[in-house]
Amino acid sequence: MSIRRTFNRKSAATGKKRPAPFSIRLSDEERARLAVEAAGAPLGAYIKAKALGSAPLRMRRSGLSVQDRKALAQALALLGRSRLSNNLNQLAYLGNIGSLPMTPETEAELQTALHDVRDIRRLLIRALGLKAEPGQ
After folding, report:
1. Is the pLDDT assigned to residue 28 strictly greater than 80?
2. What digits encode the pLDDT tens for the residues 71-114?
3. Which of 11, 34, 60 is the last residue of a domain?
4. In whole angstroms, what is the distance from residue 113 CA to residue 84 CA?
5. In the chain, is it the N or the C terminus that has fewer CB atoms within a 10 Å radius of its CB?
6. How many whole angstroms from its chain centre is CA 121?
7. Residue 51 half-sphere exposure toward CB, CA atoms < 13 A
8. Residue 62: closest CA among 44, 79, 42, 32
9. 114 with 80, same domain?
10. pLDDT tier at 29 (50, 70, 90 boundaries)?
């Protein structure tokens, strides 16, 4: 007996056959409108709930669309590859042991870097839907 025949016989014996999918064509504008209305909920589930008048949908855990999550993942990967935290740690170490000449220009550049890191942190916290710690 072939593998295909065995598989088909076993799957038929379970009686759990998935229903056939239903396809619908949407224009770019229609799809964009539905994505806005779904407000982060999975689009297929939103359309199904809207068509059948089901209960309100639960949001994805992050509340981000797939495209937003992909962009966020790419941004985090770039940030990790930048070795920014390692470089800042080395600068802090050199400053603590007195090996970093602290000129006004160096101090201004470090202050700029500090503000940039704080901005990146704030934006990532907002993008992830997290709450910032008090005083941050």
Report:
1. yes
2. 787 888 888 777 887 888 888 888 889 888 888 998 888 888 88
3. 60
4. 10
5. N
6. 15
7. 9
8. 42
9. yes
10. very high
